[in-house]
Amino acid sequence: MSYIEIRNIFKIFGPDPQTALQMAKAGADKDEILAKTGHTVGLHDVSLSIERGETFVVMGLSGSGKSTLIRHLNRLIDPTSGEVLFDGTDILAMSISELNAFRRKRLGMVFQRFGLLPHRNVINNVAYGLEIQGQDRKTREDAARNWIERVGLGGYEDKFPDQLSGGMQQRVGLARALATDPEVLLMDEAFSALDPLIRNDMQDELVKLQGELHKTIVFITHDLDEALKLGDRIAILKDGKLIQTGRPEEIIMHPADNYVRAFTRDVNRSRVLRARTLMQPISDDDNINASWPRIADDMRLEDILPVALATNGSMSVIDGQEKLIGILSKEQVIAALVA
Ligand SMILES: Nc1ncnc2c1ncn2[C@@H]1O[C@H](COP(=O)(O)OP(=O)(O)O)[C@@H](O)[C@H]1O
Ligand SMILES: [Mg+2]
After folding, report:
1. Which residue from 16, 95, 117, 182 has the least number of CB within 10 angstroms?
2. Are domains 1-54+63-93+234-266 and 275-338 of this chain identical in fold?
3. 112: pLDDT confidence band, cut at 50, 70 and 90?
4. Domain ABC transporter, which positions (predicted)?
């Protein structure tokens, strides 16, 4: 069983969801149900498995059900039908006190609008969760200082939120979420309000931190570039339905339908595709030329390109153990770029 299991979730918004639920289960879609019953389908039979330690991105257009989905994980929303399991525990069966403890100890949340407390300085914002947990002042301030340092805000401990830029405020939001050492970070469009350059910095920061922390992160975005950069896997929602789940390369190489394809059209493929996806795996009788440049299997197309252009032959692809696993030709590299 996976760490987080979402099983056959339907969420119908409106005063009398059962009729609409039966229609949805019988195959009616969101538009039809809205027209006939006035009820909104938030999620339609969504099942997902999220592994411990992965960054799982949920992507889709506005209104596709992303926030509704993430709110099921902290039970801000209960499903109309379906199950949510955390580490084997049914969170829908938790009592209020169990649920509060679960949220406080195991989940960290980062919000789009930062959600900082305006009358507290940076250190007291970051220490907030630990204060709720009842930790003493020294413990929580030490932890807060550590996290402030790690998100690159050392020196700003005594500033107040309105003295910080948006990017810095979101670093505080991230430090606050991490300070309680949660197992899971829930991030709903956490970077969407930031300017593109700052947003890029925050994405880099999150990738760096996650390389050290290996949290389970559920990250929501409407931006495919962001999804591809951050996600180990990506789930794509449309009108409450799960359209595709896959690794970034799978989404780019094999979009499930035109909705996904429309997202992928403007993506910079050279940042996503890697040698191992493009190469021809070698079999025993392949003729490897020792003079060919050797490239790592996780090398991205943008970094392979200069090597490809400089060689007259092909390239040998090697894995982490320096074992030869494939061949990549200049033509394959160019074909992948223009596809
Ligand atoms: N509390 C609510 N009451 C009624 N409809 C809602 C509510 N929350 C969300 N919805 C509807 O559910 C659908 C999914 O919304 P949401 O999950 O917020 O989408 P996203 O986060 O992808 O933009 C939308 O059609 C939205 O209007
Ligand atoms: Mg949303």
Report:
1. 95
2. no
3. confident
4. 4-264
Q: Please state, in angstroms and as integers, the Cα–Cα distance from residue 233 to each residue in 50, 71, 220, following that order.
A: 9, 19, 12
Topology of the domain comprising 96-231: Rossmann fold (3.40.50)
Other CB atoms closer than 10 Å to residue 25's CB: what's the count?
13
- Tell me phi and psi for residue 237, to 5 degrees: -105, 145
**pLDDT tens readout for residues 132-165:** 889 999 999 999 999 999 999 999 999 999 999 9
pLDDT higher than 60, residue 285: no
Alpha-carbon span 268 to 291, nearest angstrom: 31
Q: Where are the domains of the chain?
A: 1-54+63-93+234-266, 96-231, 275-338
Report whether residue 17 contacts ligand 1, using a CB cutoff of 6 Å: no
Of 254, 293, 301, which is closest to residue 275 (Cα–Cα)?
301
Enter the tokens of residue 191.
């970077």
Distance CA 258, CA 279 (A): 26
60 lines ligand 1 (CB under 6 A): yes
**Dihedral over Cα of 203, 220, 144, 125: its sign:** positive
Which residue has the CA at smallest separation from atom 26 of ligand 1? 63
Least confident of 100-104, 181-185, 202-206, 311-315: 311-315
Token pair listed for 60: 């889709």
pLDDT for 231-262, tens place per residue? 999 999 999 999 999 999 999 989 999 999 99
40 Cβ below 6 A of ligand 1: yes
Query: Which atom of ligand 1 is nearest the CA belonging to 62?
Result: 23
Assigned fold of 1-54+63-93+234-266:
Rossmann fold (3.40.50)
